[in-house]
């Protein structure tokens, strides 16, 4: 069945009744201003709700309004985002913030079509801001919504196709309840996040649609939604070098474009180095190695590539100046001022430095 063959007008009332009794208390729901909705939705892309909470609160405390975001220095901005990954998201937010200051007199636009003109804002985010913050009757279709609507209607089309998403947006537009667009869109997201879970984990007996869900009636819960497989990730082997003397550590800055653009990192090279090769590498930097310690292997997964890493801690004689392409910084300074991608989180622990999401965990 296709979604247009299902009576979608049956969905809003039981869904909203359920939502008002089961909605989670989330910091961005307490005062859903356009800015707060925008920040939360960008953070929540590819990141779990519980992980986002402390980031959101810190971000809003530091940059409480669009003007602050537009003027923030890049390194501070990246430091605020450290651990969330996908750093282009926050870079695009800053570009959009500058657009808002220059083209919209500092006010986030309320119209869906105007929101789409802002850097980094797609159909879902535009729909979320317009409906939740401004009450506009527009859909906000994310992965959760694609799943729950496909299931209730037993729609077996591939949700990875843009045509299917566009069709769902068109059909949902017809049934958004007047004056309750924000609650309706949030309820759809909430249902997908807490009840109509992926694969074989849905909690059908807790679902407000259990009596009308066609996938449940037809025994197709495990088969729907249909989702084509993503391309296989490329694997890259790397050797990571933690080179330090006393309280200083060597860092270098990544190129301005590409993966993790503009972030700081520990020196690393393609391939898996032996201890002898690490010794030569260190000497080639003009340093005098005193001790080389082999560290654990680590894996970090990006959307299209996996890094398989081998680490080494290299103690060197004290040096007084930076080497070409490298910075020699105090570890305390590194902690506060140098944004390090979470890809290297497995190795920061060897420096007794918490970074990204680890900083939000209380000591036992």
Question: Can you put this structure into words, describing what you see?
Answer:
It is a single chain. The protein is of the alpha+beta class. It folds into two domains: 3-217, Hypothetical protein, domain 2 (Endonuclease III, domain 1, Orthogonal Bundle); 234-360, Nucleoside Triphosphate Pyrophosphohydrolase. 40% of the residues lie in helices and 14% in strands. The protein has 16 helices and seven strands. Strands 1, 2, 3, 4, 5, 6 and 7 form a seven-stranded mixed beta sheet that branches. The longest helix is centred in the first third of the chain and has 16 residues, at 88-103. The chain is elongated and about 75 Å long.
Short description:
The chain is of the alpha+beta class and 364 residues long. It contains 16 helices and seven strands. It has helices at residues 12-22, 27-30, 34-44, 49-62, 66-71, 74-81, 88-103, 112-115, 123-133, 143-152, 162-173, 181-194, 214-217, 275-284, 331-337, 345-348; strands at 234-245, 248-253, 264-265, 268-270, 289-301, 305-316, 327-330.
């Amino acid at each position: 069945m296709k979604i247009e063959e299902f009576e979608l007008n049956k969905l809003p009332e039981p869904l909203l009744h359920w939502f008002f009794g089961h909605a989670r208390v989330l910091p961005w729901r307490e005062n859903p201003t356009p800015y707060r909705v925008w920040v939360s939705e960008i953070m929540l892309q590819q990141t779990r709700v519980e992980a986002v909470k402390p980031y959101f609160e810190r971000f809003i405390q530091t940059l409480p309004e669009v003007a602050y975001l537009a003027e923030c220095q890049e390194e501070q901005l990246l430091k605020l985002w450290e651990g969330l990954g996908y750093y282009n998201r926050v870079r695009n937010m800053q570009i959009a913030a500058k657009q808002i200051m220059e083209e919209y007199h500092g006010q986030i636009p309320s119209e869906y079509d105007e929101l789409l003109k802002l850097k980094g804002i797609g159909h879902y985010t535009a729909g979320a801001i317009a409906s939740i913050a401004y009450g506009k009757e527009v859909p906000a279709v994310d992965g959760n919504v694609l799943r729950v609507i496909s299931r209730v209607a037993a729609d077996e089309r591939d949700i990875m196709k843009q045509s299917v998403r566009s069709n769902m947006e068109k059909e949902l537009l017809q049934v958004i309840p007047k004056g309750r667009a924000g609650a309706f869109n949030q309820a759809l997201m909430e249902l997908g996040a807490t009840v109509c879970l992926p694969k074989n984990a849905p909690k059908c007996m807790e679902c407000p649609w259990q009596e009308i869900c066609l996938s449940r009636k037809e025994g197709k819960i495990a088969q729907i939604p249909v989702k084509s497989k993503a391309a296989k990730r490329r694997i890259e082997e790397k050797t990571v070098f933690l080179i330090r003397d006393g309280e200083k550590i060597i860092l270098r800055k990544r190129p301005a474009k590409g993966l993790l653009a503009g972030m700081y990192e520990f020196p690393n090279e393609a391939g898996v180095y032996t201890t002898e090769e690490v010794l030569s590498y260190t000497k080639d930097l003009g340093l005098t190695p005193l001790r080389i310690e082999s560290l654990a292997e680590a894996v970090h997964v990006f959307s299209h590539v996996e890094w398989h890493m081998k680490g080494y801690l290299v103690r060197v004689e004290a040096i007084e100046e930076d080497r070409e392409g490298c910075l020699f910084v105090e570890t305390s300074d590194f902690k506060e001022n140098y944004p390090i991608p979470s890809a290297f989180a497995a190795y920061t622990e060897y420096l007794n430095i918490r970074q990204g999401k680890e900083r939000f965990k209380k000591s036992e």
